[in-house]
Each structure stands twice: as C-alpha cells, then as structure tokens.
Amino acid sequence: MEDAPLIARVVADDDRHAFTTLVRRHQSAVRGFLLRLCCGDGALADDVAQETFLRAYQRIGSYRSEGGFDSWLFSIAHRAFLPEKRRRHWSVEELREEPEVVESSAPNTGETAADIARAMRHLREPERACLSLCYQWGMSHQEMANVLDYPVGTVKTHIARGKEKLRAHLSSYGQQRKQEE
Amino acid sequence: MNEQNESLESLLSKAAHIDDDGFTEALMIRLPPSRPSLRMRATILLAATLTSCSVVAAVPGARRLLAEISVVLVSGSATAGFNLLVAGIVVSLVVWGAMAAASSEA
C-alpha cells in the first residue's frame, strides 16, 4: 500500500497500525539522514529520529502531499536536529573519532564510504544536510530548499563548498595512506 | 576532474539501509494516547449540540437565561458582560473536560 492511504487512515481514524507501517517504511531514510547530520553519533541520531516521528504523528493532519512524505519527514528531522546542535555547541574537535559506517564496495580511486563519513564530519551542518539530501536521496535544489528552509542559491553554495571540502579531505586521506604504505 | 566528481558523487549516493532493530516498537510506546477519530469527534459535537438544543427547548429556566444573555449583549453592561464572559469560560472548560474524557475512552 502507498503512503497516501496510510496517512489518510492515521488522520481519520488514528490508525496506529497504519502509522507503524509508515515508520517502518521511512525509518531507515530518516535515521540515515540524521546519522549524517549527527556526524555518525548513532544514539543521538536515533533520539532525534524518535522526536521526528513523534512530531510527525502529532502534525500528520497538516501534511500536504506536494513534496512527498519523505521530504516532509526530512524537514521535521532537520528542525528537530537544530536545537540539539545549538545545545551541544558542536565543533569538529568535539566529535567522536570514528563514526559508525557501513563499508561498501568503493570505486577505483581507493576512497571508501568510511573516508566519506570521516570527511563529512569536517563539513558544516548545512553542507552535510545538502550533500546528503542531494546525493543520497536524489532531491532537486528546490526540494532541498523547501526541506531545509534555505534559498535555492544558498543550497547550491552549500553543495559546491561541501564537495570542495570533501575533495580536499579525501585527497589528504589518500596522501596519508600513500605515506603509510 | 570529471572522474573525481563521479567518484565522489557515487560514494555520496551510497545510502546504507538501517535495520529497524526495535526503533519502531520504542516509538510506538512513546506515542500519546489515542485521540478520537474524526467520526467520533463529529458524533460528540453533534450530541453536544443536540443536548444543548433539547435543554433550551425543554427547560423554562434555560429560555429565561438565554433571554437575559441577549439583554446583556444588547445593553452592553460591563459588569454583566464580564459575568457572562466568566460563565462562558467555565462552560467552555466543562465542555472541554467532557470532550477530553470522551477522547480518552475512545
């Protein structure tokens, strides 16, 4: 069953079973997005994800299907994450050394998903958010602007700067590896 | 540069699936108690309206009260208006309490 009928059942009849199905369907995307924002801190990402779905449940009546349910959840997740970020006064130095990363088959450049995760931690939060939404979830600039509540031009800038920084970090990791060899 | 771009984008696009691992169960426990469905809320409102109309129609005192209220509204007396406001708030709270009780049972 698609999202729309499930959402309609939650709104009309407070159908918990339908909401459970929606959560199971979208939890991976929301938690993955928050894991990126939280620099690999899985416990914090899950806390914010729980808060995200609680808010989604409370406000599901206000959901309009224009941007898709995923986009709506990402938007709530981002808003739920921001106070956490302010509360913790995050800086790169305070972040844990090694994030939780699922290894995947890397292309022939020698860079891995672990490298990406490590390099992502050196980016500013808006850059991480934009890169994640753009590449992991294939959103357009306009969709990202709606989700993150930034102007489209700002989204483009964050993506360009984020990619530039990532490239620089990945290149330095590559050099480190060569020196170690 | 293009190759580098593709490699970076391909790495960025790899979204690992995260297993539920009890996440949904933990969330469902934290959800607030059930709220009445739209149908139930409509039924409660209709019942409240019908009951109010019956009371007004059946009880002579209620008609007199309505007449008093209309006099106060027309005359614009400040004290009477204040009393009416307080009475209105009290009645609203009572109705809201009844609705909340009905929703917790639904």
Largest interface (C-beta under 8 Å): A-B, 45 and 30 residues
Level-1 CATH class name of the largest domain in chain A: Mainly Alpha
The counted number of beta strands of chain B is 0
Order of helices and strands of chain B: HHHHH
Question: Largest beta sheet of chain A, briefly?
Answer: none
Judged by helices, strands and strand pairing, the structural class of chain B is mainly alpha
Give the biggest sheet of chain B. none
What is the string of SSEs of chain A from the N terminus onward? HHHHHHHH
Helix count from the secondary structure assignment of chain A: 8
Mean pLDDT of chain B: 75
Q: What is the alpha-carbon Rg of chain B in Å?
A: 28 Å
Number of distinct helices of chain B: 5
Known CATH architecture of the largest domain in chain A:
Orthogonal Bundle
Q: Please identify which CATH superfamily of the largest domain in chain A we are dealing with.
A: RNA polymerase sigma factor, region 2, helix turn helix motif
Model description:
The complex is a heterodimer of chains A (181) and B (106). By secondary structure, chain A is mainly α. Residues 96-109 of chain A have low confidence and may be disordered. Chain A folds into two domains: 1-98, RNA polymerase sigma factor, region 2, helix turn helix motif (Rna Polymerase Sigma Factor, Chain: A), CATH 1.10.1740; 101-181, Arc Repressor Mutant, subunit A. The radius of gyration of chain A is 18 Å and the shape is elongated. Chain A contains eight helices and no strands. In chain A, helix 2 crosses helix 4 (69-88) and helix 3 packs across helix 4. Chain A starts with a helix and ends with a helix. With 106 residues, chain B is mainly α. Chain B has one domain. Helices cover 79% and strands 0% of the residues of chain B. Chain B is elongated and about 85 Å long. Chain B starts with a helix and ends with a helix.
